[in-house]
Amino acid sequence: MDSFLIDRDPTTWSAPAGFPSSLIPSGVFVQSVPSGLEVTLVRALNKPRTADLHKGWSKRRDGRASPVLLVAFYPTAEGQRVSLCGPVGEQPVVYQDIEVSQAERLADVALSEPSHHAATRFLLSTMPELDSPFPGLRNVGLLATQELKDGVPERRDWSEATRRALPLLGRRGRRLVEGLGFHIQTLATNASMLTIGGRNHAVAVFCDEDEPFEAPSSRFDSTSPVSRALALADQHRVDWVILTRSSEIRLYAARADTGVGRKGRTETFVELNLSLVPTELAGYLHLLFSAEALADSGTLVEILDRSADFVADLAVRLRERVYHQTVPALARAVAVRLSRDRHGDDLGEGDLANAYEQVMVILFRLLFVAYAEDKDLLPYRTNGRYADHSLSHIARQLADDRRRGRVDYDERATDLWDDVHQLWDAVNHGNRDWGVPAYNGGLFSADPAVSSSGAAIADIRLTNAEFGPALAAVLVDDGPEGLGPVDFRSLSVREFGTIYEGLLESKLSVAQDNLAVKSVKGKEQYVPAGDDDEVEVQAGAVYFHNRSGVRKATGSYFTKPFAVEHLLDNALEPALDDHIARLDELRERGDDAALAEAFFDFRCADIAMGSAHFLVAAVDRIEPRLSAWLTLHPVPAVTKELNRLRTAAIEALDDLADGIEIEVGTLLRRQVARHCVYGVDKNRVAVELARLAIWVHTFVPGLPLSFLDHNLVQGDSLTGVASVDDAAAAVTPKGSKAEASLFVHQLQSLLAGCQEPLARLGRLNDANKAEIEAARAAHAQTLEAVSPAVAVFDVATAVRAGAIEIHRDFDFSSEKIAALADEPAVRDAVECLDPVHYPTVWPEVFVRKKRSGFDCLLGNPPWEKVVVDREVWWGMHLHGVRSQPVAKRRALIDALEAKRPDLAAEFEGERERAEDFKQVLRTTFPRLGLGQTDLYKAFSWANLALCRDGGKIAMVLPRSAVSDAGMAKWRTEIVGVSSDTQMPWGGGGWSADCGCQWPGSTTTRVGCSRDLTTVTPWHGYRTPGA
What is the reported pLDDT for 273? Predict the structure, then answer.
């Protein structure tokens, strides 16, 4: 202890009143700046208790501005160790059993920082990594932590990389980068270009000691160093950005699709602090940051590829455990509770659907909290009280129990459920002691008016025996590296969508007979158990299966990443090109007011969004384009608002603000989610998950979760009204063209009445709770303002559903329309169809002069025929029947139909509803064409109706979209030419631009616009001559 920071001079200090007697004061080192950091040393005879460390830290700091790092020395069998507590916060996390040399390096670097803000920021970012196997290395979403830990040190070139890096550990800034093998060329007054063999490879910014990477700086035109560097990287088309400051070197990917657990570009990086890294780990510097690392096919590319492989395997293992263990276990437990509530009565299909929704809510609450802790969206690393109650703490306990062979879940105890439920309550309502703000999201709500499933979950308590295995399957991974908590830091938020979409095709059922599992056509499937079969599900038990009777979910609804990226490259990016060109034009005209108004006026939608897989990806594309443009062409009004949000966040964080890095791109991504992306889904849980995914992906510490009720809505995308012309055509009797034209003007006037509350909603940016409530109020006022138009649209929907008929002599006054909209036939039709009327749900998209409609529509709509097939439907209740010969299959179905009149009635009801829905679709989309009514065809027409002139559409469609006769009119419409000889699909062969093979396709882009269509059906990656 006497040699701790031997090159610095400590001062003595005395314990204040109330200081724990178990901690004996020693020296204190003070940073030589105003309100400088204090590194306070104490001794203890034994390992100090957390409560004593908190009390001692609090007494020493005593409410002063100076941050305090309490360092407690104590003896152990392995030698002297220290505990650390601080530097700010109400309940700082305590770190125990730290090696003295590691704590010394940490304290020395912190005391060398140019301000107490910088020292605090350094400590809060590095202390959570004290238990890391590689001190000084900080990985934020770019690489897989497990690959860095286990894979990189096992490389054959590790020893050579370490040898070459050791002489560079003492270098800083330009000398360090030159030592790493780069040639440096001046790019701007504050940036450089790094070249390898004469080719541009990375943009570099060498920051001064008092210039944080993420903070706005006058040297960078009031933007941050990283934003400036990324903008220049985009401009010069290079893939990497390197920043240095003091002993830190940080690497960012300029491409938005690089990084295994990426958020935005400014929040995805790997960093090395050369003052903290031990010499034996110096190889990371060469393998991750050198010219040889960043070269084409360099070591960084290899590590990225291996990281992607690791994360893919991790994600597969998680999904398998969720599908095989978590969901079935939760389903059985919830169904038992539901059966008890019904006093033993049989569970109907509605009961089972409710139970399944409860299971989904429990599952995704767990996934959200686990992900949020690992991504530092919840204060697991900054608040000791939260850490003690966290899912991460529970995960470590469960993993330790497994390692020790002590897996024994009590059949009466409910402490696991109670602990997790306490976390959910904190996320929903907030917990001041834990440092958790109120989430106020529907997924965690127990209010029956918000979530009937949440209310039901609040009334149950699962035992450890019921809940423990399901919880462990979510939180504990048993991979090649051994048993331990799931590394959620390495997973993207899109994994939520993958899991959800894999569960879409599944359901709960009650077994009518004993069921066994057998392989049918290569898939494990439930079948009636024979005398010699092992019974997997007892008769009368609830079990989990997909809709074909297969034992597990398959995830077939999930859109593969390459398809998502391809659609974004060839539809969203061209749409953004148009938007940027519009901004350039306004800037050249010097119209600052119009420029500020137009900056976020880019509208992108997915009207079959599921859990927002496409929308999350769209945010990642829109933000960097806007950020790069804003960095090079500042817009005062936009910059002022971003600075206001940043200030609000810093004020809300109080003294924790120094440890949080709030970059302009982070704020911009939040604004993009708030103003630019829109989505619809029929499933309420999907909508909640979509909001959750957007919230997590655009989270800014210190700011409340954005108001997304306006942007992401629940309803049927296909049954509502797409435009005022659409509504007028539906309600105006045939032949009344003059009345239709007059009615269109009337509807446009009704929509214009919402401009004031809509403008107010657009100006609010959710900087605090008051603005969230104001946004909610403005949203409600907007809905009230457009309610007369909603009445018209409801009537139009009822007409198309055949519920009512409009006669030629009908009085189209607003009073008559409102009265008709209140008629039971109309209300029943609207309640049944749950239509989304786009001009009234999102009037800001459709009242734009000359630009009415979306700039870009994306998605992977369902490929389902609107039909209830008898054998498929009964096959869900009679597993294995579809593998029987035709005669036997029909006989078995007939027998069950006779035995179960309740199911027979349900089947007839579903068939009738399908026929009614088919009729609505054919009335809504009169050009749907011949053949079977398929949802993808309806979505194709719906997207086209919502796209503005010159906008872009990108969808994943089946092969029949380019061959089916029923899609001929749609193909002609999007191309705008005769379908006889001029369609852009017809020659066959390989397309060099997109790398796909498709019989009858020679086009080179994907997407469509109202004035030009370029469609490429994907058939997987291929190379020329493959």
Answer: 95
